[in-house]
Amino acid sequence: MQNLIFGPIISRRFGYSLGIDLSPNTKQCNFDCLYCELKGAKTQDSMREVVPVGEYVDTISRYLRTHPRQKIDVLTFTANGEPTLYPHLLELIKTLKPSLPPHIKTLILSNGSLFWQQSVREALLEFDIVKFSLDSLNASAFSRIDRPHKSLNLESIKEGIATFATEFTQKTQGKLVGEILLLKGINDSPAHAKELARFLSHIPLSRLDIGTLDRPPAHRATPLSQAEIESFASHFTGICVYIPSRTPQDSQSPKRTLSRSELIQALSMRPLTQEDMQALFCESTLALADTLTRSHILQWEQVGNIAFLRPAT
Asked: How far, in Å, CA of 108 to CA of 305, rounded?
């Protein structure tokens, strides 16, 4: 088997990542998303090609042993498809984790579709960071953008995410990261945003990533502009929202000056990254934020490779 691991690559959101591909030879997924960069393929509810756990353990152990100085922040479990379809996920993570250096965190990138299965949740509880996607709670838009396998049901997916989120935060110190990918004319309306915001406001997320097409997709789809993504994201209050930006901030745009109470209120509604703070606020407000941070009224919260400023708890 080739390409069981790849990288390390530099991820802006998670740092230096060594990837583990749980479906190295072919796409095996229960979604066929419009925005997927992989060639379209028939959805499936189980993996037909399964690499033995021992091959992954040997390959990863050998790499770590022969590259002791390589910077790695996260060991990222992914797939040419959906990694939670891998039938030996619990065995693999429980075998690998004790042998990892303490500074390497384990991360899985999932579409969230199988969190309703107890066996999947049991495996996910072993990870340090779990990232799931949830593109729409509207049944029509969900079917159109994610193109799920016929065995999947949106209500079961919602219930699974809610159940796992509770278990994960109660039983572990792990970070739960959500992601929404927007396509123009499908899941980008204010109604879609409000429905997702209502649901996710009850999920103990460490961070929510909201983005759009970043690479050429296998199917026809249209991305949103940065301004349109920002407008959609404005509905998600009280959540650490991260919006990847590939365009430089406009240095000529007016910077806001906030009082102490206004700044605390603004950050309680929307925790901000350092980049956000620099783009939005004038020097006096940035200095105020530093003062409030030193006084422990505000605090930085690190989620993966992204830090957010928010009121202290």
From this structure: 15
8 upstream amide cis, omega within 30 of 0: yes
**Widest CA span of the chain, in angstroms?**
60
The chain-wide mean pLDDT, for the chain, equals 89
Give which of 202, 46, 50, 181 is closest to 114, Cα–Cα.
Answer: 46
- Under CATH, what is the fold of the domain 5-242? TIM Barrel (3.20.20)
Q: Which of residues 248 and 9 earns the better pLDDT score?
A: 9
Q: Give the pLDDT of residue 313.
A: 77
- Beta strands, E only, 121-233: 129-133, 175-182, 207-212
User: What pTM did the predictor assign?
Assistant: 0.86
Give whole-number Cα distances, 139 to 11, 132, 161, in Å.
32, 18, 16
User: How many Cβ atoms sit within 10 Å of the Cβ of residue 213?
Assistant: 17
Helix axes 89-96, 53-66, angle to 10 degrees: 30
CB 107 within 8 A of CB 85: no
Average pLDDT over residues 272-290: 88
